[in-house]
Design brief:
Layout: H1 3-11, H2 17-26, H3 32-43, E1 47-49, E2 58-64, H4 68-77, E3 87-92, E4 98-105, H5 113-119, H6 130-136, H7 139-149, E5 150-152, E6 163-165, H8 172-186, E7 190-195, E8 198-203, H9 208-215
Antiparallel strand pairs: 1-2, 2-4, 3-4, 5-6, 6-8, 7-8
């Protein structure tokens, strides 16, 4: 069944549980692209939830108002799995500043169960299974991982091309495992370091050109500014590990 037909059927569901059940039977599995992107965002800020003790799972997405366009891009990627469009939420943080973010979630479906096997521990905490992830991680996944939760290592005028993955939600051992996957599978020179009492991954500027050829082509326009670029004088500062 094509995308247009599925979207037309989805519009007729409204609050009918019976129609929703029938719809879930029509959307049987994730596409290869959806699978790769789901893996990438779960390495980042996305989360998995279950409401039926692990029989099915749903994906939950959240991004700051600054990255609204990226969040709506993800909504479009997973649109056949989502009943309601993203919503804006506001909260007051500990510094008494109003923080705005956008959220949406998919329907609960067994198509997401393989992600739970890959990313959730027995007590439903986010973690990774290295032996499985290293076979599934692709350049498309890493691109979304970076867009979701990566950044330049140096935002100063020196404009170094090293970059980071902010892996604060994973244990130190798991971050080491993720770093080794990037080294072994993608050929990057990277290592872990402490940040806010947690471990993150740093990728050397020496691996910049290789990484750019592998993942930058998958970046959505609104997130390209997160990627390290050359300085105005065309000269890059290369850090040494």
């Amino acid at each position: 069944m094509n995308l247009k037909t599925l979207l037309q059927i989805k519009q007729k569901i409204k609050n009918s549980r019976k129609k929703l059940k029938l719809y879930k039977n029509l959307v049987k599995k994730l596409s290869p692209k959806e699978k790769q992107i789901a893996i990438g965002v779960l390495l980042g800020d996305a989360s998995l939830q279950t409401q039926d003790n692990g029989q099915t799972y749903r994906l939950k997405f959240e991004q700051s108002d600054k990255h609204k366009q990226y969040l709506f891009h993800l909504y479009k990627v997973f649109q056949i799995w989502v009943l309601s469009p993203p919503k804006l939420y506001s909260r007051i943080n500990k510094n008494k500043v109003c923080v705005k973010s956008w959220r949406f979630q998919t329907i609960s479906h067994n198509a997401f169960n393989f992600l739970a096997d890959l990313f959730l521990s027995d007590i439903k905490k986010k973690h990774i299974k290295k032996s499985k992830l290293e076979n599934l991680l692709t350049p498309l996944s890493v691109a979304y991982w970076y867009m979701d939760d990566g950044g330049k290592q140096d935002y100063s005028v020196f404009n170094r091309r090293a970059f980071e993955f902010h892996t604060h939600c994973f244990s130190e051992l798991q971050v080491i495992q993720l770093s080794s996957i990037l080294q072994e599978k993608f050929g990057w020179n990277c290592w872990t370091k402490r940040n806010k009492k947690k471990s993150i991954i740093v990728v050397s500027s020496q691996s910049y050109e290789l990484a750019e050829t592998q993942i930058f082509k998958y970046f959505v326009p609104s997130m390209r500014s997160k990627w390290p670029r050359a300085g105005v004088d065309g000269v890059d500062s290369v850090e040494k590990k």
